[in-house]
Inverse folding.
């Protein structure tokens, strides 16, 4: 299986069209963007840019897809964020189909041409879905998860399945049965987990947006570690149908994007009632992005009157000082925007962690019963039924999963049920109430998304309790079923360019709209921060495509049909026409050489394009 | 005494010998291992002769003691609900479909699939709850019952644990006259909703394997089982067979109601009648076909005995594999004698809490599995399904839509003056009862209608193997027929002829009478003419009659009837005939 997940070492690093059509310096120069873009450009929506350029025929979906695939292939050996990458022909075919429709003047969905990564515990009909577990190695689902189906219907292109801790159980993505994903900010560090692959992929711009799942923080913590925007919707907002259940009463499918706008657009695409999920809400889904105001139109105090509560317990002992100061900085930034900041206390906060681990383990012990090797997945060779079960599960599950199944089985056993499961449910009720009270008094609550920035790979692998403790910031939100948005707000020292710190904003149930609105203003007004990992940061050509791609009021007019947006900040300078993809691609090795110098020092594969790079 | 002890011990692992027994397993862990098989072989060898005729021996011995003991019987019944689709997905269920042709990601327990409750299940459960006079929980929920077995795709069964949809209640029934009769009321403990499991198919048959290959579920587990190859009085040889075990998930996820009775029954007959009354009830309600052979109604029986006068229950034994009401009754009677025998021999402590299997062929129960304490199913609330909330309005609307139930019907028939035998016959089958009700609604005489239905119509149905819904006769015509006979339009004999015509071909009584010119001759003048004709045509017999051979009257009557094509009114005929015969003598 691994062979299909990772491109072989001898893969051709660049798409064929480049080899057959060498790019000259002259063509590059003609299309080169002005190199004067300010370094603190606020993030903007890649999805809107793509839509604009597709509809104005500045680029084809095929080219966009191709560029993402080649970027993905290039970065993948170092990040290992994908467990499976779609067949490029299939992706290009889908893109070509979109191009055809655009050429015919047909309408295309709001996610047209958007390359999406999907966490591997979310079922996709046309590619393997393993949940990061050996027990499902090679398993191909018969159906698309509802969220994936919606993305596909709206024109999104699923580019691959991202790595995760086995069945979402872990906080580092090290518990994947197949590979360890690296953090694009520092490849010696973990990307967080369990949706580490999805976060790393968006951070390294291997895909535009991605789907993750959040049971106890699995979207928010990796978003914080990788410096991207991560959204955990309200429980019931997004259908769980097709999400391999870990803890059914806590699981939600969440979104990753490089900007709040992208995250909001993706959430809008996947939200809503699903008749296949009895726990999905019938509430109407508001147009999340419609409230986003253009930065130019913002008043001096755009968030005036917004009551923000800082959860005192989250800035206590055990939290990195760097993280605390980043969050305090974010709080004062919110204050500058007009918010009233008060420090609030949630006395039940510390109860969340044990309650979470009991409930999640209990439910998982039940949910994972179906992986018995009888109907699908890996089956052990056994001469007798008990060994068939025992061996299939012993060989199929990793240690972390086994530990949680054991804990959960224990917690549900006769004689222990009342002391563990029932007690934890009572704690859950207390937590839900205390959040309700706090959110009656405040519009949003803020806290760090994790007690620290990304730590080293292997650092906590032998200390599960330390790893579990890292979930303290996020688990309460799952127990209360509330929505939370994590967006990068600052840095702590570490790696080559510092490590991002995420701010968690918690909102009232089904009030993602407010979180996204506040998040958008926060992100647009945050000064002196640029959350692009060093891996691609110095690549101006890439940036011209990824970061400073044009948006205009004309674009929004087009988008009105989909009610995606009323206004968006007009971004600063951008080059005329579409960027040169070839230039973009040529720039990769250069950036890679810097980012992964130590790896690149002894390249195993001669790269045919290094020779024709400008200056090399 | 020795014999019976050993007899019990060899039944400890008969599962090994009966691979089909696995089909019925609902929970627990399959414990077939090679080791225990070998261990069993030796014991089996010696004991073979002694198990030859166990039921008879037991009955004889226990009869003496049975007076001193009282049996306590409770029944768990699983009723398959006849919803169009399964409980938690959109798959239809039809008994007997080819394996795995009615499955989807949800009922196959594929990763990521979620259950969504079919609301019809609630409706049917509420109907049954109301019909059993139970208290409905307006706020119930589903729970997960967890155990591993290959026929259970998710590794847990969605069921209800601490808050069943209905609890308490009772069911009334009348015992058949031939079993002594009498009215009984048995308590109901609870009614809850759950899903059915799939079926394991064990086969080495190649043709079957091919069938499976073509089905959409290509995975199956393999295992050993052992079969008896050769047996004689002296030795038994076993062979271990490697086989494919295949899972048919058509039935997985089909909605069930589990109805648990109070331990109120005392005899096999009572238990069988309880089960029969439940079947009647679900058929009256239209919630299930209640077919025991197809497994739409399955009974697991708990039996214990105690010395008469003792309040405390004895150790209970569960019996499975009961495919008919008579097997329910016979299995219980067997089990009671077995337990009484053990008690009477002072070995009451050898009755252990276990699950025993009824063997139809051998007419005995054998150990299927011993329970080591209470199985821990680790129930917890099903997080994928919201709670089940019933409103009073909803319950009332269902209550208003309930049909007349068997007990009410029987009491009504009783008031009409029918005998209990007739009542039970008519009310036994909801369709017969409806036919009867429709007939009397058309004004037919109650007793006559009952007699026609129980007599000629029932005989016809039995001969032709038809149900009352399949015959061509409609209630209105039966009423017409009865009225025609009563009114004298046709004779009873012609009535029968018309009945069979109606049963086989349909049509109307009036039409048939007209078509075949069957109106009874009630005109004395007309009959007289025929009588005269017959008498004149048979002078010899007339002479003999008048010579004293009065037995010949029958002959003349026959001739007259023949000539009138059976239409002559028999009373008139005989009157006139006698007059004529005797007139000139």
């Amino acid at each position: 299986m691994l062979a299909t997940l990772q491109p072989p070492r001898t893969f051709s690093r660049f798409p064929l069209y480049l080899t057959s059509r060498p790019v000259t310096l002259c063509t590059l120069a003609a299309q080169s963007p002005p190199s004067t873009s300010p370094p603190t450009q606020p993030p903007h929506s890649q999805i809107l840019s793509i839509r604009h350029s597709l509809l104005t025929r500045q680029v084809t979906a095929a080219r966009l897809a191709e560029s993402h695939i080649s970027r993905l292939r290039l970065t993948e050996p170092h990040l290992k964020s994908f467990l499976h990458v779609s067949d490029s022909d299939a992706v290009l075919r889908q893109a070509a189909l979109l191009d055809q429709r655009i050429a015919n003047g047909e309408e295309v969905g709001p996610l047209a041409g958007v390359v999406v990564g999907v966490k591997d515990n979310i079922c996709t009909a046309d590619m393997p879905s393993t949940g990061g577990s050996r027990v499902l190695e090679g398993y191909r689902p018969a159906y698309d998860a509802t969220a994936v189906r919606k993305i596909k219907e709206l024109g999104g292109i699923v580019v691959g399945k991202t790595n995760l801790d086995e069945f979402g159980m872990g906080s580092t993505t090290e518990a994947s049965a197949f590979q360890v994903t690296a953090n694009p900010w520092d490849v010696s560090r973990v990307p967080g987990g369990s949706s580490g692959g999805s976060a790393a992929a968006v951070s390294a711009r291997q895909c535009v947006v991605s789907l993750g799942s959040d049971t106890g923080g699995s979207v928010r913590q990796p978003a914080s570690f990788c410096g991207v925007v991560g959204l955990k919707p309200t429980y019931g907002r997004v259908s769980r149908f097709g999400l391999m259940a870990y803890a059914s009463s806590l699981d939600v499918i969440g979104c990753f994007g490089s900007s709040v706008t992208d995250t909001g657009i993706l959430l809008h695409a996947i939200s809503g009632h699903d008749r296949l999920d009895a726990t999905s809400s019938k509430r109407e889904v508001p147009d999340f992005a419609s409230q986003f105001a253009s930065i130019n139109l913002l008043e001096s105090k755009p968030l005036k009157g917004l009551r923000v509560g800082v959860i005192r317990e989250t800035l206590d002992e055990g939290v990195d000082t760097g993280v605390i100061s980043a969050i305090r900085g974010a709080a004062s930034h919110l204050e500058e925007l007009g918010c009233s900041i008060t420090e609030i206390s949630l006395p039940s906060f510390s109860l969340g962690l044990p309650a979470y681990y009991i409930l999640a383990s209990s439910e998982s012990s039940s949910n994972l019963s179906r992986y018995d090797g009888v109907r699908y997945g890996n089956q052990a060779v056994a001469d007798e039924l008990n060994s068939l079960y025992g061996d299939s599960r012993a060989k199929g599950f990793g240690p972390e999963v086994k530990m949680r199944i054991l804990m959960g089985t224990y917690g549900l056993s006769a004689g222990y049920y009342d002391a563990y499961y029932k007690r934890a449910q009572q704690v859950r009720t207390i937590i839900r109430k205390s959040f309700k009270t706090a959110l009656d008094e405040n519009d949003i609550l803020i806290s760090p998304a994790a007690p620290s920035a990304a730590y080293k790979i292997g650092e906590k692998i032998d200390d599960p309790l330390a790893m579990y403790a890292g979930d303290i910031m996020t688990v309460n939100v799952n127990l209360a079923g509330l929505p939370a948005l994590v967006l990068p707000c600052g840095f702590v020292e570490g790696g080559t360019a510092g490590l991002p710190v995420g701010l968690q904003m918690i909102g009232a149930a089904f009030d993602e709209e407010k979180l996204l609105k506040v998040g958008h203003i926060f992100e647009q007004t945050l000064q002196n921060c640029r959350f692009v990992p060093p891996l691609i940061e110095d690549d101006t050509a890439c940036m011209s495509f990824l970061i400073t791609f044009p948006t205009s009021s004309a674009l929004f007019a087009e988008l009105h049909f989909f009610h995606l947006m009323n206004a968006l900040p007009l971004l600063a300078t951008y080059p005329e026409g579409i960027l040169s993809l070839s230039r973009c691609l040529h720039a990769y090795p250069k950036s890679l050489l810097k980012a992964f110098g130590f790896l690149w020092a002894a390249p195993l594969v001669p790269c045919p394009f290094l020779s024709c790079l400008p200056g090399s | 005494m020795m014999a019976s002890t050993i007899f019990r011990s060899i039944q400890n692992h008969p599962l090994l010998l009966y691979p089909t027994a696995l089909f019925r397993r609902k929970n627990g862990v399959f414990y077939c291992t090679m080791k225990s098989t070998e261990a069993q072989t030796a014991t089996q060898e010696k004991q073979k002769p002694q198990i030859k005729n166990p039921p008879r021996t037991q009955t004889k011995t226990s009869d003496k003691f049975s007076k001193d003991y009282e049996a306590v019987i409770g029944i768990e019944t699983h009723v398959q609900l006849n919803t169009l689709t399964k409980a938690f997905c959109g798959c239809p269920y039809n008994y007997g479909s080819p394996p795995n042709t009615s499955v989807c990601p949800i009922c196959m327990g594929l990763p990521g699939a979620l259950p969504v409750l079919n609301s019809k299940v609630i409706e049917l459960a509420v109907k049954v709850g109301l019909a059993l006079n139970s208290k409905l929980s307006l706020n119930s929920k589903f729970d997960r019952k967890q155990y591993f077995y290959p026929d259970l795709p998710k590794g847990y069964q969605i069921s209800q644990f601490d808050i069943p949809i209905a609890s308490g209640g009772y069911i009334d029934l009348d015992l058949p006259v031939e079993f002594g009769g009498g009215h009984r009321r048995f308590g109901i403990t609870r009614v809850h909703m759950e899903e059915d499991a799939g079926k394991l198919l064990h086969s080495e048959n190649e043709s079957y394997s091919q069938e499976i290959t073509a089905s959409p579920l290509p995975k199956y587990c393999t295992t050993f089982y052992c079969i008896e190859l050769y047996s004689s009085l002296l030795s038994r040889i076993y062979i271990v067979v490697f086989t494919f075990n295949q899972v048919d998930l058509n039935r997985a996820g089909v909605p069930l109601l589990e109805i648990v009775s109070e331990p109120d029954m005392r005899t096999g007959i009572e238990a069988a009648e309880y089960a029969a009354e439940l079947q009647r009830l679900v058929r009256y309600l239209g919630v299930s076909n209640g077919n025991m052979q197809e497994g739409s109604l399955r009974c697991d029986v708990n039996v214990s005995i105690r010395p008469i006068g003792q309040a405390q229950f004895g150790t209970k034994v569960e019996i499975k594999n009961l495919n008919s009401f008579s097997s329910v009754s016979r299995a219980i009677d067997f089990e009671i004698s077995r337990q009484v025998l053990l008690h009477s021999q002072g070995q009451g402590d050898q009755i252990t809490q276990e699950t025993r299997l009824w063997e139809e062929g051998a007419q005995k129960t054998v150990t299927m599995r011993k329970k080591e304490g209470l199985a821990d199913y680790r129930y917890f609330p099903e997080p994928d399904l919201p709670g089940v909330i019933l409103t009073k309005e909803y319950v009332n609307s269902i209550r208003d839509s309930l049909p007349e139930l068997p007990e009410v019907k029987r009491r009504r028939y009783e008031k009409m003056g029918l005998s209990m035998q007739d009542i039970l016959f008519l009310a036994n089958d909801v369709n017969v009862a409806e036919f009867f009700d429709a007939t009397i609604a058309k004004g037919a005489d109650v007793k006559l209608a009952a007699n026609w239905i129980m007599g000629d119509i029932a005989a016809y149905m039995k001969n032709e193997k038809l149900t009352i819904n399949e015959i061509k006769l409609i209630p209105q015509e039966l009423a017409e027929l009865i009225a025609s006979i009563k009114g004298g339009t046709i004779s009873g004999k012609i009535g029968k002829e018309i009945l069979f015509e109606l049963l086989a071909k349909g049509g109307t009584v009036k039409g048939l009478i007209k078509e075949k010119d069957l109106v009874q001759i009630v005109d004395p003048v007309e009959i007289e003419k025929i009588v005269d004709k017959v008498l004149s045509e048979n002078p010899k017999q007339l002479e003999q009659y008048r010579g004293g051979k009065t037995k010949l009257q029958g002959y003349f009557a026959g001739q007259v009837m023949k000539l009138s094509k059976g239409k002559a009114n028999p009373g008139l005929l005989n009157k006139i005939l006698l007059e004529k015969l005797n007139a000139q003598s």
User: Anything to note?
Assistant: DSSP finds 23 helices and eleven strands in chain A.
